[in-house]
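#dry-run=false #mode=assembly
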Amino acid sequence: MNRFATIAATACALAAGPVIAQDAAVADHPPKAPYQKVSDLVKLPDFLPGIGQLYVDPATLPAGPFVAYDHDGRLVSTIYMIPISSMNADTGFDDLAAPGGNVDHVDIYYNAGHPGVEEPHEHIVLWHVPAADEASVAK
Amino acid sequence: MRRRTFLRGGSTLAAALAISPRCALAVPVADIAMDGRPDGSRVWFDPRGLLVRPGQTVRWTNRDSANSHTATAYAPENDDHPRRIPRGAAGFDSGYLLPGETFEVTLEVPGVYDYFCIPHELAGMVGRIVVAKPGSGGGFAGYPDQGLDPAILAGFAPVADILRQGAIPGREG
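#status=ok
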């Protein structure tokens, strides 16, 4: 490769931003063990409107990460669920896994609770798809 | 065709009512919806306060497409919760209801029945049913705090309001 080609390739890479590796365990649907389908672990709908089909390694509850897929089996988001009671000076969550790869944007919102994470908590959603593609898990 | 079918069904119903006074006098099932915002940020029973007659059946239906809910009586047999149902009444627990699923219970003993949703109790998803004979005037009171979280206590509609209005709507927030 000549010098110009090398510079061009480097510039393209920088313009595109760093590529964060996706954990092979979650690349395909369904994700590999230790991930399990949430609706098999607790009584929740198999497909959650606004979220998708949800998987988690039970050992990581309640924080997660949870990984969510759309109807086509595409990984759309990684979600952390942080109990409100844990948001204080004496509690922290270090080194949470981030298996989903590149993040397009982030949503953070309150959830009143559900089976699996019964107490009120925050959903921190790392979307791996553009905002427009959130529609793929809307229903 | 559809209209004709409807009319035939209607005349059949009228005939059934005419020959079955028991049916005509039947007390209707009282419905309570379990509902919530699509993102799960608020959840509620609607109505959250309800007046029914002794022997009337109450039916809960999960209308929340994104969550599971329970209708669980405040009673020691339900995870050691304080008793907030009349003496002699049995505690009930629907178990988790998925969207569209229902649970029914017939309440015979007059008094005040407080209940909650297991995964959403701490979020204040609670309800209150008053069982009273028509025109009885009530004479019922609520329950002491029993150490419950203020967010829970705030969810119980006042007994006097239920007796006066019959139903207290749930809150969307």
